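From the methods appendix. Each design record in this collection lists the tokenized structure first, followed by the designed amino acid sequence. Records were kept in a plain field format so they could be parsed without special tools. The example shown here is representative of the layout used throughout.

RECORD:
FOLD TOKENS (139 positions):
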């Protein structure tokens, strides 16, 4: 085969190949061949979208702090409510059930102490981490 026959046969092969492709595939191939891809331009930048990273971080920090404080406040309210119910209930208990109630009161007191201590430590650590990093970033 000479060069002219080779080019003719390759043109026929590409014509057969494009004939078997759908119009969408042809369009995609033509688009890909004409485009230069730059990975930096695939996603919009902060300037183009108008999103400021620092403002978004501040918003997230304040939402996290509010959520954690609400959890702690809910736990405190539930604990004091439980203690109040136990105090009121113990006023109406007869002598036979008093010993059993004292055991329950001690268990509730220990449980509340355990939960509040662990929760306060975890919430304090999380808030200290997030708001401590905010102060170091602004320096």
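DESIGN:
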């Amino acid at each position: 085969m000479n060069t002219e026959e080779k080019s003719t046969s390759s043109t026929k092969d590409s014509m057969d190949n494009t004939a078997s492709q759908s119009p969408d595939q042809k369009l995609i191939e033509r688009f890909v061949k004409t485009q230069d891809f730059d990975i930096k331009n695939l996603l919009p930048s902060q300037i183009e979208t108008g999103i400021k990273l620092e403002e978004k971080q501040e918003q997230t920090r304040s939402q996290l702090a509010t959520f954690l404080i609400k959890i702690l406040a809910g736990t405190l309210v539930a604990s004091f409510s439980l203690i109040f119910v136990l105090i009121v209930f113990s006023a109406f208990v007869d002598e036979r059930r008093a010993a059993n109630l004292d055991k329950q009161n001690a268990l509730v007191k220990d449980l509340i102490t355990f939960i509040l201590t662990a929760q306060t430590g975890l919430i304090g650590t999380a808030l200290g981490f997030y708001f401590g990093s905010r102060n170091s970033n602004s320096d």
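APPENDIX NOTE: Residues 95-138 form the longest helix (44 residues).
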